[in-house]
Amino acid sequence: MERYTPLTGIDLVPASLLIDSEAPLDVLHAMADYRIRTVTQVLENIAFRSEMETDAVILSDFAQLVAIPLRDGCDLMDVIGRRLRMQAAETEETSVS
To answer: DSSP letters of 11-74?
Structure first.
């Protein structure tokens, strides 16, 4: 696994927003948790509003606004998953030896 993974959705070369795949797992998890919970809170606040009039342009902009941190959180969770699978494979190899 490469040390620095670019965030999904950023097509610039070289990428400037990167995830350090060697950062401690608790730090990666905290960053993913923060982004996903922030989006969840915003969406819940909107869902509980009884009257909210918007047009298609505003909805499109809002969808993009909440998709960015949600995608970042998912990218972080992907890195965590790869790290955990690598650790599990190493543990399995060690226990077999």
So the answer is: --SS-SSEEETTS-HHHHHHHHHHHHHHHHHHHHHHHT-S-----HHHHHHHHHHHHHHHHHHH
How many Cβ atoms sit within 10 Å of the Cβ of residue 67? 12
User: pTM for the complete prediction?
Assistant: 0.84
Query: CA–CA separation, 31 vs 80, rounded Å?
Result: 11
Q: What is the pLDDT along the chain (97 residues), one digit of tens a residue?
A: 899 999 998 778 888 899 999 999 999 999 999 999 999 999 998 888 767 677 778 888 888 999 999 999 999 999 999 999 999 999 888 888 7
